[in-house]
Each structure stands twice: as C-alpha cells, then as structure tokens.
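User: These chains co-purify. Model them together.
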Amino acid sequence: MKNTIKDIIKPYQGEKGSLIPILQAVQEKTGFISEDAISTIAMDMNMSEHEIYGVATFYTQFRYTKPGDHMVKVCLGTACHVRGGEQLLDRTENILNIKPGQTTLDSAFSLERVACMGCCALAPVIVVDDKIYPNVAGPKVEKIISRYSSSDEKE
Amino acid sequence: MDFAEIREKAVAKWEALQSSDTPVIYLGAATCGRAAGIEAVAEEIRQISKELNLNISLVEVGCIGPCFLEPLIYIQKNGSPPVCYGKITPGKIKKLLEDYLINNNPRPDLALGTLGNGRISGISGLFEYPMLKHQTRLVLRNCGIIDPDQIDHYIARDGYLGVKKALEMNSLEVIDVIKTSGIRGRGGAGFPTWKKWEICHNVQSDDKYLICNADEGDPGAFMNRSLLEGDPHAVLEGLLIGAYAIGANHGYIYIRAEYPLAIKRLEHAISQMKFYNLLGKNILGSDFSFDIKIKQGAGAFVCGEETALIASVMGKRGMPMPRPPFPAISGVWGKPTIINNVETLGTLATIMRKGGEWFAGFGSESSKGTKTFSLVGKVKQTGLIEVPLGTPLKKIIFDIGGGIADNKKFKAVQTGGPSGGCIPAELSSLPVDYESLMSAGSIMGSGGIIVLDEETCVVDVAGYFLSFIQAESCGKCSPCRIGTKVMLDILERIKSGKGEIADIDKLSSVAETIKNASLCGLGQTAPNSVLSTLRYFRSEYEAHIIDKSCPALVCKDLIKYAILEEKCAGCGLCRKKCPADAITGKKKKLHIINESICVKCGICYQVCPSKYGAVEKTTGFFDVERDF
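Assistant: Joint model of the two components:
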C-alpha cells in the first residue's frame, strides 16, 4: 500500500501545488484517502498531515472510507431538483437503506449526492459507477439498482 | 510541415469524409448522448452492418443541441447530405439501415433534417427544425458536426486561422480587435474581456498565466461541457489567442472532475496541438511559446470565483482572497494571471477570423454577440442553445423550447444558477442581456435557463439554491457563512408550515447584510434567489406562512395524499409500490393511505393508472379543486 502511494507521488515530486492531483490520483487508484496515504504524502511532500487534511476536507470529491463495489450518485442539480431529484434520492435511500455518504453493510453500494452531471436536459438522472441513467422519474430506479444487486452482474 | 500544408491536408481529409463512397454514420456521442444510450445504438449498428454485409464508417461527434431528441444519429450515404434521426433505439436500427442503405428510402417520416447545404427530397434542413431555426450558432458552429478527436476536422473548418491571424499582429492590436467586438466575460460577471487583458498586458513579468475556467459549477448548466466535448480545439485556440495578447507563457484548464469525457477530449486535443506545433516553443514559427496543463477541480462551487480558483490551482483550500490585488496583477504564484471562461475563449477564434465589427453586429447595444444557454426544466424541448444577446426570454422558451411541457402553465424562469433569481412569466418579453436580467433581480450567470411551471414551488426553489450556497460557502467570511445558514433556517421553517409573517422581513434584512458585507461574489449574490422570489411571488410565501399551504403542491410538510373512494378500483398497484407500506386494502376494494406512516414520496400518485386517477394530492386547509 505504502509503495503504491509512493509510486503515485513520484511524478509530482518537486512540482509546486501538486497536492490536489496527488490526492485525486490516490483516490483513483485505491478508492479512498486512507490515514496511511495521508501520512505517506505528508512525509514525501514535506508537509504536515494537518495541512493535507485541511485541503482534502475542503473538497467534496475526497472520501475517507472504503467505498462499496458500486457507486450510486443521485444528481441534485437544479434541473433534476425541479423534475423530482429529491424524490429520486428518497427512493434510492429506501432501496439501499443507507443515507448519502454511507455504504451498505455488504459493501455492495455506496450512495452519494452530486451537484450536477451536466445532463440537465435528461433530468432527473442517476449515475451508477460510470453509467448515467436518464429520465429516472417514478419507480424506475428500483430496476436500475437491481441490475447491480449481485456484484458479479456488473454491466 | 507548415500550417498551409497542414490545412490543405486537413481540408482534403474532411472533404473525403463528406464525399465518402461508403456510408458514414455520425453518432451524437457527448455525455448527454451517452446517457441516452448512443453506445448501445452504435453496437447495434456494428452488428447489423455485419448481418447485412454493409461497410459503414462510424464517426463520433459532439452534441448539436436538442438533447431531448437524444440519442441522435446522422446517416450519410454516398456523399449525400447526412440525414439526422432522433430518439434512436437499438430496435429501430435494422429497419432504418435496410430502408435507407439498401432500399434507398431515407425515411423522411423519421428524419429530423439534413446537415449541410444539399437537400434530400422530402426532408428539410436540420437547421430549419423548430428548435434550431431561431438560433445563431457562432460558438457552437462545430458542435455535433465534427469529430472532436480529429484536429483535422477543426482545421478544415477554418480552425487555427484565428490564432494565425493574431500572430501576424502585435498583441495590442489583438486586444483592440477584442475591444471592438465588445465581448464580455461569459462566466457570469460580464466584465469586458479586453479590459482585463489590457491590465495584464501592461504588467511586466517573466511569467504570466492564462487560466481557462471550466469549473462549470452552476447545477443546471452544461454549456461548457458541451462545447469542450464537441469542439475542444475552439477553446484551446482561444487560449492561444488570449495568451498571445496578454503575453502569457503558462496555461491551465481548470475543469471539474465530474466531466471525464471533456477531460479526455482535451487531453487528446492538446497532444494533437503539440504534434502540429500549435503548442510548445515558437508556435507556428513565431516567437510565441506557450504550454497548457489540465487541472481537475475537486468539487467546490466557490472555485469558480477567480481568487478561490487560483488558490485551488496552487494546491490550497479554494478560499477567496480580498481584492486588490487583482489576479491580473498578482495571481498564481504571485504572477499576473487572467482567468477566462470556456465560452469566452471558445468565441475568440471566430472573432479574430471574422473581425471585431462583425461580432459586434450580433446582440444588443450593451451586450454584444451570441450566448449559449442550457435550456432545461419544465420546457418541451430541452437542450443546448445559442442566441444573440438581447433575444426576449419568451422567444427562447416558446419558439426554441416549444413552450411548457405537459400543457402546464408557465410560471417563471430561473437564470444565473445559485447566484441568480427567478423572473416571473409576466416579464417574459424581457431581453436576455446582462443589464436587463440584473434589473429584474437576476443575473446572466454562465447561461443556465431553468423553466418553472405551475407545479414548481418558488419557495422550494429558493430553498434549493440557498441550501446549495450554504453548503458551498467556504466559511471564510461570517456574513456568508452565518447569514446563509440563518436564511436557510427561516426558509425551512416556512416550507414546513412553521413560519411567521415576520420571517419575510427577517429574510429581507439578513439578505441585504449578506449582499453588502460578503467577501466574494458567491456571498454577494447568495440571497438573489430569495430576494427575487420575494419580489415577484410574495403571496406564495404568505400562503406557506398564513394558510399553511403550498399552492404548487410541492413542500412535503404541507401536502397530503389520499385515495378517492369513488375512483379507486382496488388494483393494488399503489399498495405494492409504496416504499413505506403505508397503503392497505384488499384486491378490488378501496385502498387507504395511513397518513401517520406515509412518507409523502408521491409514488402512489405516479403509479395510479391514469384511467382511475384515484390518488389526489392536497394542501393546507383547502380542497385541491380550489383555484390558487
């Protein structure tokens, strides 16, 4: 793990202002920002851990716990909001039995709310992993989630 | 290879594609097209072409705008004009390919129109299609037409001629062209682009930075995403022109991580630019050298603010700084820095090519040129549009958008995102320019237009934007940090029916304080959504407070669902779908909602078959029949 983090940092070393790209690369590779990752970055970049936490927690992109196998993101941009995004989130919470920011007990799903995926013309939308589902009004979301319910049935 | 040679080859390549003997199918493959399922359509085309023994080339293009018709494909047969078809599903492919490519019937009944100048009998031009007819496409001229991954397509359509022309002038002359064009920043504030540039140009420094702000944070706007996905080189050429004008040697594109496809397109485009010596040292043989790096935003709305963006580029918390010093004098690493919006940059090449006067010929007196908007919400034809500034709102909503969806009544339009406000239907003849929107209590913003119908509660919309701003407030200055929270608490109270009439004055007074005392633009505009709705829809606030009712039937705490005895057929659909198990009833017998456990999700209302229409939604002390 430590070596993975070190490998990620290497190309950025000596480059000014590279903390955010490093954190992004770590999250991309390992799924989240672990305490170990922060201490390794602090050591290698000659920064304090506090400073790194300060920067990381400012941005909503970063997670500090291991996410589930599938990431479900409910868009709550304006267009989605006026076309029923809140209800979509409620429904998704009910189906998965978790709140945004949480992961199901079987680690199959994590739920997040996002501000806008830029697909406003197709609102409301839900994103599972990297796939965007358009016009998810009404009970449609159940079907979408059920496609991913068994981890090996990944689309 | 010099540029003339590159251009000649590019033109030949583009023309060869257009007159190709083998059929070409262009796929609308921007994020919106992908969301709507273009990938499955493409897969089906590959399958069917094998089955039918057809040799077809597939070309990915960006988004041409009418997103509500996605997925879109254009079929070009033996060099005839590409025919556009909308709402294509894999199931429609086989018949369509057989009809057109084998039996020579282009299916005018399904076609939306043809691209380009030629015509096919029975099919009109795509740009005569109602949604496209009223638009003027300068910025979006290539979107949905060229393959964004092919720099040659861009070059063949006069790409990089703008920067070539700029390099033949001195930098002050370039600034002068932009001054004549009258273009103002398309990111929201509307500051004249040339003025910003001139300040930076006049500062002496070995290093200067030009940043493209692609942190399209307004939730409900996607113009920048579409432009970057559909025509990345237009924006990159704009960066070159801007950099040359101000004397910058470093460029950044600060783009939100939520736009992975746009990032991919940009990375690819940058590598192609390097290959053609359009980036790096001595660009096109001139003395001008420039490089561009991509920085991904990490999810913070406030980073759209210039000083916050600069902090973020330097790897810090994205918190705004008091100005002066202005970034044009001291920005990234203390060096002169200019930040221009994606659309501003995307317009520059065309201005350079066609001249400042030409561009100034579009638009209104104070707002020159065209502007892209994302037209969304409760409108029939949603999508990405471009119109001359000064176009009346109603033209955008009714002529381009086709009016309000589902025959509902037009209530208001929200512009400018979280920093903007709601403009009521009565003011729909308002011209869309910087000053008019400002005087109506909203702003231009980056170009989100969200249409609201009678089923939208303006108190809820104001609350939505306020909760967004409150969550995104960086916390540095107290008027914004505490003020937005106080306002949100009051609004939540009103929405839940616990408001008092004095709350309206409290909202206005806190709003004024936040407006006057906040450090940055985010705070200064934060109360706009509330102030504008109070200005035009005060009675709706009063209904929530005095009557404890939500006239639009939106605010959960003020509505209830009930099943009408005379209409319920006992089909049981609502009972099966109710997530809270709040509905009981035997088959073919009346069903009843247990109000104490109902979570008011509205599923029963949505799933009750329309032939019964047995679930009703009511509010306050009144009947649903009552005319608010």
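The CA atoms of residues 421 and 442 of chain B lie 4 Å apart.
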